[in-house]
Amino acid sequence: MALPPPDPQFVLRGASAAVHTLHFSCGSQEPDVPILFSGSENGFVHVWNLKTHRVDTALDGHGRKSVYCVETMGGKDRLLSQGRDQRICLWDLAEGRTSVMDSVFTENVGFCRCSLLKVAQGRWLMAMAAKALEEVQVLELPSKTSVCTLKPEVGAKLGMPMCLKLWQLNCGSQPLLLAGYEDGSVVLWNLSMGKALSQLVCHQEPVMSLDFDSEKAKGISGSSEKVLSIWSLNEQQNLQIQPTDFSLSTWALVRLPLLQAGTEHSNSTRRVLPCPLKRPVG
Predict the structure, then answer these.
(1) Contact between residue 110 and residue 160 where contact means Cβ atoms under 8 Å apart
(2) Residue-wise pLDDT tens digits, 173-200
(3) DSSP bridge partners of 24
(4) Alpha-carbon dihedral of residues 98, 102, 108, 113, nearest 10 degrees?
(5) How far apart are CA 246 and CA 31, in angstroms?
(6) Residue 223 in contact with residue 204, Cβ under 8 Å?
(7) Rounded to two decimals, what is the model's pTM?
């Protein structure tokens, strides 16, 4: 039997719409104030002060369309948000600014979250689902220059990309992409070659979430059949399934961050919970 969730440390109220995504920005030194960003069904991104338990700022950049991804870019003053308006918005929040600095039109009608990877000071790679439903496009930010478009081989029948994870072994190494697909596969892509290096069928249903530890070369993915699958990457860059998996008691899946936020199924309330994994991945 699953353990009950821990009691909340505090409850945040006031978003006035269902919350679809959360992202923490917690500095390591005082007096940096811990921040929680939330994206809502009504298109707003709320910036929550976790000391006062109140909203510092409400950002409106998605035309009242649902926001399903928020992520900081090197600090709490630079933010990325992605919404159902098919736009990825880049925000500069320094000195109290609240307007969109730049945006990317994805032309994709799905709900695959983009993935960011810092490659140099002030330079990022961003992977996102492309206009063609089975493809992934990688851009460099802030220039928005196209790096590559990743296309499955003819007849692969992977379906749509459902989740993405850009990563690299160290600062100077070649960036790689892990993508979870509609057919239940996880695929490792080489960006410079624009080709798939390895494919592993992890699930019987679409892969809804994945994360990867590049130091241990181990990953975890979750799907809509209520199963978490653990896999590894060997020295030949082949993905391999691990014998252990986890059954979930609920359909809802998290993005598997080290620090998680639990959300009540309520239009205006978030319960902030400390949620360590009950069992280590590796």
Answers:
(1) yes
(2) 899 999 999 999 999 999 999 999 999 9
(3) 36
(4) -60
(5) 40
(6) yes
(7) 0.84
